[in-house]
Amino acid sequence: MTVKEDFLYYLWKFGKLHQYHLQTTDGEAIQIINLGTQNHHAGPDFFNAQLRIGNQLWAGNVEMHVNASDWFVHHHETDKNYDNVILHVVWNHDIEIHRKDNSVIPTLVLESYSDKATLMQYQQLLNASKKWIHCETAFPALNAFQFENWLERVYLERLEKKAAEIEILVEKSNYDWEAILFRLLAKGFGLKLNSEAFFEATCTVDFSIIRKLSAKRGSLEAFLFGIFGLLSQEVTQEPYFDELKKEFNYLCHKFQHTISTTIPLQFFRTRPANFPTIRTSQLATVYHQQRNLFSKIIATTSLDQLYQMLQVGTSSFWETHYTFEKISPKRTKKVSKKFIDVLLINSIIPLKYCYDRYLGKPDIESILSLLRSIAAEKNTIIQKFTTNDISIENAQQTQALLELKKSYCDQHKCLECAIGNQLMQQSAFLKKK
């Protein structure tokens, strides 16, 4: 049978092995006093284990591999972090591993001591390769309380990843939080196809220019259209386009802003309401209507107030246009609540979390409460989970499920997942398979 290292971690961490009469490959008795703490970062797999091997009491680290020779595949022989390994736990013992002083590192072959029922459950869980996720048929058997707790933890993992990316931007901007909010919102207004183009363009701009231009909507709109590359095209017989281009060139000269090469914007495969022209005008409206937007956002925990701040429309020209060239029936193009939810989930809530942490008072409960008050997202991944008898009510759950699918299910990390751990211990799971 083929196993992965995560199965070895699982057996060791939860004591799913026959601990009586454990022996090293050299025949020395092993007594486990403390299994140690699993390490999820670089270095040995378990820290601070306590073992009695033969007559010697050891305290140190435990390293695990499917094959003993993986020690050299991973280049541990040159890494001083592995000098304090007191036991090498493997599934296949294909080579002896020596310390730098040439002494043999004691080795335990876990296959000889693993629980057979656990091994069978692991096989059945991982062999469901034709399914969307390995455990999709078993969701009705899950404990609801444990499932919700796990989703909360997985969402916090997702939030930490987003926060880490934002913190890099904050440091680069010399802690100009208003500037970071502007860039994150621009990225959000760009949506999937144009997010990077909008974000990269705003990163070339000193935010002080946006502050100065926010009082005059026409100037701000001209500047944003210009930095996003929307004025580089050739448009004939449209006075508004000519006005924007003239104003943008003037502002570049005034603020000594160098026009940068921009990532081409995408109109193809985009609904007209999401055209970059419309989203750019809406972004300009936000910063024209809301001065000190970051301070206002940080000061509120009210979802309704956030909607009021961000539910803006376009300038009058765009009420009758989607592009510069063609007139369309007049329509007020306001940002929808659904779109604002995307901004809140991906930009504003992670930034609020970062700022609270920067002040030394992270308020996880407020973050979770705000996210739970946002409607559940709708996409193909969430739809798949829904068809597997999962009740999904809010954005915290959908964000957690997206992270679960990406970082656990798709990576086959079933034994690092609380759901996989729960199923491994349920006889109902075996029967259902």
Automatic annotation (TrEMBL):
It comes from the Bacteria. This is DUF2851 domain-containing protein. It comes from Kordia algicida OT-1.
